């Protein structure tokens, strides 16, 4: 049986699929193994009869570099050129915010260090973290950057102030004591926090935090208060009974605090943060809320900064 001629009907050429490229390699060079991955693509045309012309694809060209100025100055010139671009600045700001968010998420304790700085320098008249941290978080949230530190100030009133007047006096005394001793200079902005108990309704007592911001340099003084936390009348009476009648500071309050009474009555309750046990909200959260309002009012009263 005669073999079948595969070139029959194709003008003497082997049959090819139309528009399918066939690759041809360059003649081998003695001693060099050809790389099968480096080939020149050649498209063989073949829809009609006759020898088709090979189709070559144009080489891709890279876009010409964009000049950032008459003198690029190398890499430094490039950074100087893009620094003023609003789009680049937005991207950099977002990147910075993302990095800061990642760091503070992994280690919340880094937030005070990242957000410290700027033109705002506030001293809190206490070395207790519950006050300093609450004020720091509030001012950094309002101003973005703020340097907030704590210095222990003396109130020179009863440990448990009674009434708003006594609470505000205790907060002011803490500021004055730091200025008198030279711990802070006379124009240093300061925030002071002092808690008091007060009878807002007949036989209904509440614990309230008094906050004062004093900025003599700008002639600003602001007072605000935390939310009121209810106290049982019996606990107030216990604190009164534990205070001697001849107590020298009785004019300003009681010798024993309500926190001490609650700690004695409820072993699981701490005198430093009994608010959390009785309301579900910590004292730090309460101070933070009031300090944030204080910072917002302060920002509104500050004179506009000149650039």
Question: How would you characterize the overall build of this protein?
Answer:
The longest helix has 21 residues, at 86-106. Helix 4 packs across helix 9 (283-301) and helix 6 crosses helix 7. Strands 3, 4, 6, 7, 8 and 9 form a 6-stranded mixed beta sheet that branches. This protein has helices spanning 74-83, 86-106, 111-114, 129-143, 164-180, 233-241, 258-265, 274-279, 283-301; strands spanning 22-24, 40-42, 121-124, 147-150, 160-161, 190-201, 204-215, 220-225, 229-231, 253-254. It contains 9 helices and 10 strands. With 307 residues, it is an alpha+beta fold.
Radius of gyration: 39 Å
> Strand share of the residues?
15-25%
Tell me the distance between the termini: 101 Å
The ordered H/E elements are EEHHHEHEEHEEEEHEHHH
The number of strands is 10
Helix percent band: 25-40%
Low-confidence runs: 6-15, 41-53, 66-70
Mean pLDDT: 79
Query: What form results from the Cα inertia axes?
Result: globular
Structural class: alpha+beta
Number of helices: 9
Largest sheet: 6 strands, mixed
